[in-house]
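Schema walk-through. Below, the input block comes first and the output block second. Nothing else is stored per chain. Lengths vary across the set, and this one has 504 residues.
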Amino acid sequence: MFRMAAPAIAVILMISGCSNGSGNGQKPDPTQNPGTEQKKEAVITVAGFDDFWKGEDSPGMVITKQFNEKYKGEIKVEVRYMPTSEYNTAIQASIASNDLPDIFLSPQGMDARQIVENGWAAPLDEFVSADWKNQFMQGSFQEGVNMIDGKTYTWPLRGLNHRSMLYYNKKVMRDAGLDPEKPPVTWDELREMSKVITEKGNGKTFGLVFAGGEPVALDQMILGLTASKVPTQGDMPGFNLQNGTYLFDTPEWIGAIELLQGMKQDGSIMPASYSMKPAEANVYFGENLAAFLIDPRHRMWQIKRDAPDAEFGIAAVPQQDGEQPYYGYTVANTAGYMLSATSENKEAAGKYIEEAFASKEFFKSTIQSGASLSPIDELNADESLYPYPEYKVFFNIHQDTMRESPNYAIANPETALVIGELGHIRQTKIKPTFGELLLNLLVDDKLDAAALMKDYASKMNKGLQDAIDKVSATGVKVSRDDFTFPNWDPTKDYTQSDYDALKK
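--- output ---
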């Protein structure tokens, strides 16, 4: 049972007590013929913090209602959505009390291997079909990532997930006398266009806006600006998989920081950027108060939601020399929704996963909502599903700039223990974070970017090495080499043959 502050108990209790709830508590009808027993309805509880559960009209809730109607009297699925911070606390408590929901989202800072090794999750293979697995794009299931000892424990929730794209406001560009169909492709163009827009905006319109009120994600902006020069993996901003070190102090990252410092000195960054939240940035951008926004793929549908009349385009993030950027990705994820090992309704839960939660119909809705690409190639290529014209460009940017990258979990699954020590490759336990440092560098012109970044990279590299040493001291075979892939070419997909070549 959860032990939390009183106001939260009522909400959190809805998550617990699910795995052992094999029925609805109804007693057999005594009026039935002797010797017969009414079959109980299997109650399946799903818990997570994803937006596709938020609200009765959300994709997850809609398809769950349809499933419940189809299997009325046989299976009933109850979804428990909670905000991220509340969910992580609640699910950790349910783990401690051995009272997990039937289907649960792995808590942040914990991956599939840790959950499986602790006996909290059951493999899916017995409860879903081969056809279900085969619908997903190549690379969706990988040993050491979401498969452990040949058994499947979770599945991709989305397809290619771009971490950094340029959103440009066409009206703002047009009003400033710029061609709204020619967004900046170099750093110089970004700075010069921003300066022109700001000067003609007379203090009302600015070149660049960003959500500095949530600084953790600001490393994605620098990742985007440097992708043509340094090896980049969207899930690991600031980490170089080619040499296994953090690259915050490289000339490329420092150069991108200095670009933003220059734009700040020009007056081209909206002053409110240093404290605003993402939803505010959406509105300012959508209401024609800023020309450029560098953000992940989810910003597209959020702008559509928060500023439906905005006239905007999407492009690759400008690079120092205008070259094509490439971003690494992995479809298979070490985190995701899992089947509780103690669930008494695994067969019914598998049916819900295959026919509803992770079905083609559900993934169609993720495309139609504009939130992301799906992990099913067939659906991504179906333009009839695209919700608005920008989605075609969105699809093309993902296809043109994203390549499969190395995955240390495949090279050595024991690296999960190292990441468990760190919490995340980002090491957000180290304070200040990169995003906080970036804000400091933009606000205080006297700070030395090169010196600060050298110190920060040193702390991050030491943190990783300390975690490796701690895990190694327990007898586990893991080293810095497991995080190093010198044969990675970011312009190409990293394949099994590349993994094999490292072992020779």
